[in-house]
Amino acid sequence: MRPPRAVALLAATVLLLAGCASAQTGGAGRTATGSATPAAAGAGADATAHGGHTTGQATRPPAPLRPGERLVTVRMPAPYTPKAPAAPGTDDYRCFLLDPGIRTRSMVTGIDVLPGSPRVVHHVILFRVPPDAVARAEAIDRAQPGQGWTCFGGTGIESQGSALEDAPWLGAWAPGGGEQVLPRDVGLPVEAGSRIVMQVHYNLLAGHAPDLSAARLRVAADDGSRKALQTVLLPGPVELPCRPGRTGPLCDRAAAVADVQRRFGAEAGFAANALHLLCGPIRASATQSCTRTVRQAETVRAVAGHMHLLGRAITVEVNHGKPGARTILDLPVWDFDNQGSRPVQPAVHLSPGDTLTVTCRHDQSLRDQLPALQGVPERYVVWGEGTTDEMCLGIVLVTRP
């Protein structure tokens, strides 16, 4: 049995989705689209020195509102100029507490995240803050000077113990994301009086331009006609050693883990070791997997994957190695600029005892091809929240009876 503290810390670390994290709800309705660069070299040799991904974003008018929907816009109250909390550093995670003005129990039925400065915004995640957690959120906000607060490894508000099975997300934006409209039969429940935390990961390799990000929410009354869409996170370990003949102080695993903890804090840096409590013993390899057992009946509606610049391929499979196994996500060529979720059609029905397996492959040789990694010393790569660190994450969107 995993120690409860370890589970809580692990859940906290994966709640970054540095998409990190990916477009969270786009594929449940229509696949989010955006600028996607050729990905012949993992993140793509066309990725710019601005931080590893292209900066152009496809624009399009929002889809028409459906009966019963209204638009609610939340935005940062003033421009924020990102900076690394610890020097030297190339990443800033900042959380902003926003009031959507929702006064009755509602369903969010679509999200359009509008990054103010796409050049420096690595990802945006919207977290629900229920009424009983608002006072804590306000206290955390007041405790740090300036707008918002530093939030590596989760917002610091939510209870983390069950976050892997039901992450408190409303939605997310990452390169390749766009407007996300859910099918008519699902929604994301929001209690009256709730707040929203907008977590923005700034990639300082692209500069320090002021940012004023916002999000448009489609909101409808919770009349019982929609099922709640829930987010299951499938983190896997990253254990990528330096290439043969390459040396340096960070080619030692212990030194690399200590460096992650120095840059992002002890709890945020805990994932590199905690993931092995979840997934198995440490095994250095370019390919890593993690299998979790389904605990309750659920229907998979959409799926996404997330890695960083050294990613090559990612899959998510149901009942790996068993009769009737089905691959629900297969990205044989990882494209950092196209992280939108994909609908699973037909939907996959899971029962207790079924398994979900995420498998990721990373490649140190991409350091020689990507402008964003020029001059960045080779290191033993473990799970970390920075743009030049790595992740292995499956994101599975489900409804439950």
Describe, in plain words, how this protein is organized in 3D:
The chain contains five helices and 20 strands. β15 (311-318) and β16 (326-331) form a beta hairpin. The chain has 401 residues and is mainly beta. It has helices spanning 4-14, 26-29, 134-143, 253-264, 271-279, and strands at residues 70-75, 91-98, 106-114, 121-129, 149-150, 169-173, 180-181, 186-190, 195-203, 214-221, 227-235, 239-240, 287-293, 298-306, 311-318, 326-331, 342-350, 355-362, 381-382, 393-399. α1 packs across α5. The strands form four sheets. Strands 1, 3, 7, 8, 10, 11, 14, 17 and 20 form a nine-stranded mixed beta sheet that branches. It starts with a helix and ends with a strand.
Q: What is this entry, summarized?
A:
With 401 residues, the chain is mainly β. It has helices at 4-14, 26-29, 134-143, 253-264, 271-279, and strands at 70-75, 91-98, 106-114, 121-129, 149-150, 169-173, 180-181, 186-190, 195-203, 214-221, 227-235, 239-240, 287-293, 298-306, 311-318, 326-331, 342-350, 355-362, 381-382, 393-399.
List keywords for this structure.
mainly beta, 401 residues, disordered N terminus, 5 helices, nine-stranded mixed beta sheet
Number of β-strand runs: 20
Helix residue percentage: 10-25%
Radius of gyration (CA) equals: 20 Å
Major pleated sheet: 9 strands, mixed
Stretches with pLDDT under 50, minimum 5 residues? 1-58
**Portion in beta strands:** 25-35%
End-to-end Cα distance, whole Å, is 27 Å
Structural class: mainly beta
From the spread of the alpha carbons, the general shape counts as globular
Count of separate DSSP helical elements? 5
* Overall residue-averaged pLDDT value: 83
Order of helices and strands: HHEEEEHEEEEEEEEHHEEEEEEEE
